[in-house]
Amino acid sequence: MPRYNNFAFIDGANLHITYQYLEWKLDYQKLRNYLKKKLNVGVAYYFIGNTKDTEDIHTTLESYDYTVKLKEPSPYKTEEERCPHCNRLITPEIIRYKSDCDSFLTLQVMSDFSLYDKAVLITSDGDFDNLVKRLLLQDKLRMVFAPCKDGCSWLLKSASRGRIAFIDDYKDELEKT
User: Fold this and answer.
1) pLDDT less than 50: residues of the chain
2) Secondary structure of 23-57 in the HEC alphabet?
3) Which domains does the chain have, with CATH numbers?
4) CB-based contacts of 157: which residues, under 8 Å, 6+ apart?
5) At what angle do helices 102-111 and 129-137 cross, to 10 degrees?
């Protein structure tokens, strides 16, 4: 009987946005089963913004045995753009919302450090390069499982020192049918 004492830390926005652009749909239930069976992941944290657009996603992910970690969005203003010649308004100032989960995910990785054997980090974001280096130094990195080869940061690839795989290489196993 396998021991499920690895934890997955999933950059949900990064994963979701990647699969909006690919020509196939990721099956999140198949991914969860893959994490459990192949990578011995007992706890799979899924970090995502808490917006009206993601409410249904939260419920679905929880039903697949993900531990959903919600980050409240922060407002920010885009700058208006004006024509440099006539000063006509081209793009108005807009209030948008962003749920940056990177620091939230990193804090969870470090807070749970003594609870897991190895971490599986699912992202292609180069902002996690120092976290990956730290996990390797402490012998706590199982692997980086990046959503896609093409969009993966070279910083992340370099930091992982060969402990990286790409979800798009597992299309046959993980595609929604």
Assistant:
1) 1
2) CCCECHHHHHHHHHHHHCEEEEEEEEECCHHHHHH
3) 6-174 (3.40.50.1010)
4) 146, 164
5) 10
